[in-house]
Each structure stands twice: as C-alpha cells, then as structure tokens.
Amino acid sequence: MVLLLFSHLVSACAFADKSRCCTRLVLWHALNCVFSVKGEQVMALSRRDWNNIIIFAVLALMLLFFIVPQQLALLKQQQQQTEKVIAEGFSLLQLQFAQTNVQQAGTVWHFQPQLATTNSAAEIASAWQQLQLQAAVKAITLETPPLATVVLLLAGADSAQHWWLYQHQQQYYLQRQGQSALYPITEVQYQQLFPQPSVQ
Questions:
Q1: What is the per-residue pLDDT across 74-120, written as a single tens digit (0 to 9) for each?
Q2: Residues 63, 150: one domain?
Q3: What is the reported pTM?
Q4: Residue 118 carries which DSSP code?
C-alpha cells in the first residue's frame, strides 16, 4: 500500500504545480489515486496503518519539495563556480614563469631558456590545457605573497591570463588576476603545473 502511494506522489506533485494548490491538496490527490485503485482495501486499513501512510507521505513530500531542490541548487552553484582555465576555442601558445618559458616549436614543447626539471615542458603544457578549477567554498584570507606567478598566452584571446600561486595552511591555491575567487589545487597538481627544478 505504501509503495502504491509513492507511485502516485509524482503525479500528485505535477498536479500541485499546475494548480498551485497547497501541500494538503497534494496529499489528498495522492490518496484519491489510491482510493480509485484499491477501494475497499484502503477503507479496511486500521488507524495505525493510516498513520504510517501519512507519515511516509509527508516524508516523501519533504523530499520532493525541499531536499531535492536544495541539492539541485547546490549542484548548479558548484557547476557555475567551476572554471576551465583554457576555454573551448582557445589554444595555448606560451607559459611564462619567473625562471623560464614553456613554448611550442612546431609540435614540440620546450623550455626557453633551458631548465633542468623533473617534469617536462610538454607535461606542464598538457597539465594547463586540461586544468579545471572549482572555487573554494570557505572564505580564505591570504597573508603571504604568492609563491609563483604564471602568464598564459592564448591564441584567440585579446589579452594574457595572469595567475598567482599561493600556499595557505599546507594547501595550494590559484588566483587569477582581477578575480577574488581562490581555486584549491592538490600538491600533485602543483608539481604538474609548475616547473620542478631537479636536484643537482
């Protein structure tokens, strides 16, 4: 019986949305659907069974009208805060770091000037090309200057992208010039995105 009631709650919610009725009317509509199908069996339910049905119905309505919309809104907000560093339609030409540049000659990426690193120029370029960032949820106050800076030159863009790398409480963050949002990255991402000088 409870499962049958749940099967009609969706149609009840659609009915409520069209007629803009109250929650009580939605519940009545769902129960009315059950009446029309089960008839005498519904009327034979005990008071305890009815109480259980009403409790489950109210919980289902709370799920449909409150919890699900909140989760969808949160998911949409997170998606809106996600930023692809190199958007579709643009291509990477050069990465300018403090100690070297990563640039392309034909199909080969290389350092200019040459720099001995544990990660190659091609690996660094690929990491930036694939990078997607999501803004930090909590507000963070940075009290130290950036650890590193990088400038991205993109084909098709009117201006270069300037990014700063920060570290706060063992966590790395990227921040784009002109924006207040901070984008957390892992230590592995940091090692992929920035030249890592090899130990001599």
A1: 666 555 567 789 998 999 999 999 999 999 998 999 999 999 999 99
A2: no
A3: 0.60
A4: S
- Within a domain: residue 146? yes
Q: Is 174 inside a domain boundary? A: yes
Q: What is the chain's percent helix, strand, coil content, to nearest 5?
A: 45, 25, 30
Query: Which strands, in side-by-side order, build the sheet including 161-168?
Result: 108-112, 101-105, 91-96, 148-155, 161-168, 171-176, 183-185
Question: And the tokens for 118?
Answer: 């544990």
Model confidence pLDDT, tens digit, residues 33-49: 555 544 455 556 788 88
Total domain count for the chain? 2
Beta-carbon count within 10 A of 193 CB: 24
Instruction: Look up residue 30 and give its two tokens.
Output: 């769902």
